[in-house]
Fold:
Amino acid sequence: MNKIVVFCGSSLGFNPIYKEAAITLGNYFVNNNIGLVYGGGKIGMMGILADTILAKKGEVIGVIPKLLEKEEVIHADVEKMIVCKNMSERKVIMSKLIDGYITLPGGFGTLDELFEALTLNQLHIEQKPVGLLNINGFFDATLLQLNKMVAEGYLKPANRKLLLVADSVEELMLKMNNYNPPKVSHVINKVVR
Ligand code: AMP
Structure:
């Protein structure tokens, strides 16, 4: 994989284990020549991840909506910064740049981005690996919710499998590298974004 978008919190969280996970992922990207695409912020998990990669001269591309382009938010050291119109355009730009998605702990913004990526894959608009780094069981409750959606008939088991989950960076990257997208059997793959 050449470039991966990482969705993660604009906050750091209370437990340092999450910050450590962002650093581990950043180091993995640098060591494996994977470029980071992310939300362009200097704060929280986003800032730690970008700083880790920039410190080792790795590739970082920020995509930030005009609304967030304020000094206290935007990462001034990221040279490749794409400023876009709004949050929706940001997602489209990001998805065109990347070969896969990874989600780290975060809040509403992070979950919004994760579920948009899953929906794009569910509709076969895209066929890219979508990974979730379940550090410290952070996403256990989210995964339980997905299982409930399957059990109650709202989420197809095949679509549940679109989400690749691991509790370490190495294991997650292994799953993403070995990902075989489901075969597209119906016309919905003709949907244009
Ligand atoms: P949240 O999980 O609510 O902290 O939101 C984080 C996600 O939403 C990131 O992946 C970003 O793409 C986006 N986002 C939210 N807040 C910001 C911000 N202040 N600066 C840049 N991106 C942000």
